Amino acid sequence: MKYLKYMIKGLNPENLYYISYISVKDTLKKHYPAYSNEVHIKAAIEWLSMAQKQNNDMGVSALFSLFDGWAPSYVETTGYIIPTFFNYASISKNYGYKEKAVQMADFELRSQLPSGAFPSGANKNIPIVFNTGQVIFGLCRAYEETKEEKYIKAAKKSADWLLSVIDKDGCWSRHEYLNHIHTYNTRTAWALLYAHKISGNDAYKRAAEKNIEWALTQQLENGWLQNTGFYPQQEPLVHTIAYSIQGILEIAIYLRKKRYLEAAVKAATPLMKVQRPDGSLPGSFNKEWKSSVKWSCLTGNSQMSIIWQKLFLVTKQKEFSDAARKSNEYMKTVQSLTSLNPGIRGGIPGAFPVYGWYAPFCFPNWAAKFFVDALMLEMYSEMHAKIM
Fold first, then answer.
1. What is the DSSP string of 151-218?
2. How far apart are CA 14 and CA 1, in angstroms?
3. Phi, psi (deg, nearest 5) at residue 237
4. Tens digit of pLDDT for each residue in 299-318?
5. Which of 1, 93, 187, 356 sits between 20 and 30 A of 295, alpha carbons compared?
């Protein structure tokens, strides 16, 4: 709530109404009703489609702010939203979403720097390792779906740039957000494996594996991964912790590496143990898996659901599936399906309560993306179980 006294001056009455209403609702721990996964997925996809229309460039607006409205399109997250739209097109049989995904991919082609890298959100000329990796996901999937060479060409150019700036030990220490090393670049390494899958270039696979080997040097005995925060003094968000874990897990699955899988389980299990009865997680944690905050990082909840579901598919340990379902049920109750404000309706806030310090009073596109992915994965798991 401390943000309000600095930002509330000059707001129009409509904005003030929504800020006040949602803040009070969240403070009182009031939630929205939950419906079927299909209903919630469709609402979030429609919100993302709305976000794509805001800037007339076919990229997806970074977020909707209750103070400032829609933000400019965000290169990084548009990149990994592309596979979500292709997946939804397949599930829903509405191939208009495939067209939207292709439009996003073309937006990425226009955003690529001459080096092959992709820029930060703040400066369109500064290359960032993590952002580049996330766009590779979209370019590779666009190539798989369309077979158009322009996408694989751009993906390989990006992957080549990542190889050119990786350290000998497998860490990326240059061209990093806030000039700090980040273990969550395991997700960038995962993107390199996608580039390997579609190109056959073994150099991408070697670099990805080298990064995971480096990341495992950051893991403590209790499963904690060091350097998962945006900067050293920060208590890392579940959002970035989950990025780190998923990169290790996905590469474990791709390379069939038992040691990597064990590391992912070691990191994901403590979070499962501290899941709250309502299915949520505290927003951030320290290296003892203790949190200093009561609010929940909603993006991180969905990301951990994805990780737990994939661990269940690999290990068959039901506790992972149970934790994921609890998380998904909770997440459905933070999504408004009826708001008259299109920036709110179907979107997912950055935090619950909405004034938690991660993306306060905002609805980020990546929160909606991971929410959709988590619910679609649950639907897939149910279908798979019926087939089995």
1. HHHHHHHHHHHHHHH--TTS---SS-GGG---GGGHHHHHHHHHHHHHH--HHHHHHHHHHHHHHHTT
2. 18
3. -70, 150
4. 999 999 999 999 999 999 99
5. 187
